[in-house]
Structures are given as C-alpha cells and as structure tokens.
Amino acid sequence: MAQAWKCSGLRWAAGGPVLVWDGGRRSALTRGKRVAFGVADGGVRECVGARGNACPVRAGVPGRSTGARCEECARLDRAHSVAADTMADDPRPYHVYLAWFGPGMVKVGITAEERGSARLLEQGAVCFSWLGLGPLMAARRTEELLRAALRVPDRIPYGDKRAVRSGLPGTAEERAAELGELHARAVALGGWPESLVREPYRPVDHTEVFGLVGLPDPVGEVRELVPGGVVSGRLVAAAGPDLHLENGGRVVVLDTRVMTGWQLVPVASDELTVPVREFKTVEVTVQDGLF
C-alpha cells in the first residue's frame, strides 16, 4: 500500500505554489503537469490544530470546511491572530495594501512588511499596490478609515473571485485602472495616522504568475474530498489556494484548503471521483456571470 501523507495546505514560494505536507515535505506545483492523489480508504479528516500545535483530541472535521479546525482549535487560532486585533504590541512594521480581484472587486488589507507580497499571492489578488507602511495599530486604523470613508471592504468571497478569473480585462493597464483610482482617493483622505507613511502607486500584476492568460472557463469546483475519492487533472492555473485542473477537456477548480487534514496517497488514475459542484450560467436578465 502506498504511503499516505497528510496535507498542510498550499504555500506560495519564490518559485511558485507548493503543497506542504506534515513533516515539512514540499511538492512544487508546475503548470502543465498532472496533479493526482487519492484519499485513503476509510480515512477520516482530522483537525489540523492551532498555532503549530496538534489538536489534543484529534477531532474530526467536516469535509467541506475550508478551515479544517474543530471549534476549540479555531477559537485558539483566532485568539492569537492579527485579524482579531489581539496582537496590539506586535513591533513589526505593517503594509496597508489595496488588492484587485476583478471588476468592482477591490479590498483593503494589512500584512507584515517582512512577508512581502506573499499575503497577496495567498489571497489570489490579480493586482495590488502598497498604500502605506507603519506600526500595526496605525495600519489597522488606516484600514478602518478606508472602509468607512470609501466603503472599501476588507474581504472578497472566494466564490466571487473564481467567477470572474477567466474573463478578466486583457491588459495590465485595464486591470489596474480601478486600483489606481482608489489609491488616489485613499491618499487624498484626511485623518491618516501620523506614524503611517503613504506609499506611491506602483501596481503589481500577478496574471502571468497565476497563469490566467487564456484561462478556460471552469465548469465547477470540488465540493469536498471523500474516503476513496480521486482527484486528477493537468494544472492550467493556480491563484491563491485554488488549482484549476483540466480533466477530460473540462476545467474544475480545487480549493486546496479542503485537502488539509486528510491522509492522501499517490494514484495513477486519470479519473475525478470526488463530489463536484457544477457552475450554472444564468440569463443576463437575472445575473450576469456564474454563481
């Protein structure tokens, strides 16, 4: 029987996306290559724990969960996160950024300066620009200022990002147009914390990095993994946690967050035997696009 490996999720490195496994092993994800794995028969998806520590009770978690944590571990993980405002004494400098995911989809966020653009790659930002740099709480206040004054959200649902990814504007200038306009409005606002330094508008485009040029429309997304199930396909694009896999002439999106916590084994099969939620195209008079 093939050795099983527990997936710890997808990470973005200098050379591109990699799958990380418990124990530190890494598998580079190269576009054009086949991605194939199976879920161990009789397997159970276990909680991945919190803050680098294993779940003390090895609790089971639902297959469709993208967090892969039990209620207690999720609470502990959240309690020590920047997003929960529980780390006000963090001495590191933080960037405030604007990120664009598609027409009408711009968000504001913060990330530690030392992480560079990793956070933007992890979120699947098609393009972004830094907005300011300073202490954590100054960055957080600036984020709140933009949300209140310009009504810029701090979250964009992944489903919305996926729905537009294969139909983005064709040039970097077109893709960055909304970003540039919002950056200009943001730096013109009053009320910025004095300790946060405004940064010039310098858009960074990830279209080539993600492989989005000429990306085919996906027909659906993997809903969950199941014991004995197989995922197989040629990697045509990777953005944020999502892998766009071509199988039998059709492209399906795999959110790698649903892989965490499972025992996975290598397979030679070309089949796709896990539940897939198909996207449905509706009439323009009801909704323009996919849902």
Q: Count of DSSP helices?
A: 6
**What gyration radius follows from the Cα positions, in whole Å?**
20 Å
Beta strand count: 15
Q: What fraction strand?
A: 25-35%
What best-fitting shape do the alpha-carbon axes yield?
A: globular
Return the average pLDDT rounded to an integer: 90
Succession of helices and strands: EEEEHEEHEHHHEEHEEEEEE
Provide the low-confidence segments as ranges: 282-291
Would you write up a description of this structure?
- This protein has 291 residues and is an alpha+beta fold.
- Helix content is 20%, strand content 30%.
- It has 6 helices and 15 strands.
- The strands form 2 sheets. Strands 3-2-1-14-4-11-12-13-10-15 form a 10-stranded mixed beta sheet. Strands 5, 6, 7, 8 and 9 form a 5-stranded antiparallel beta sheet that branches.
- Strand 1 (5-13) and strand 2 (16-21) form a beta hairpin.
- The chain starts with a strand and ends in a 13-residue tail after the last strand.
Key structural traits:
five-stranded antiparallel beta sheet, 6 helices, 291 residues, single chain, alpha+beta, ten-stranded mixed beta sheet, disordered C terminus, 20% helix, 15 strands
Topology overview:
Layout: E1 5-13, E2 16-21, E3 26-28, E4 34-39, H1 71-79, E5 93-102, E6 105-112, H2 118-123, E7 127-135, H3 136-150, H4 158-164, H5 172-187, E8 197-198, E9 204-205, H6 207-210, E10 220-222, E11 230-239, E12 242-247, E13 250-255, E14 263-265, E15 276-278
Parallel strand pairs: 10-13
Antiparallel strand pairs: 1-2, 1-14, 2-3, 4-11, 4-14, 5-6, 5-7, 7-8, 7-9, 10-15, 11-12, 12-13
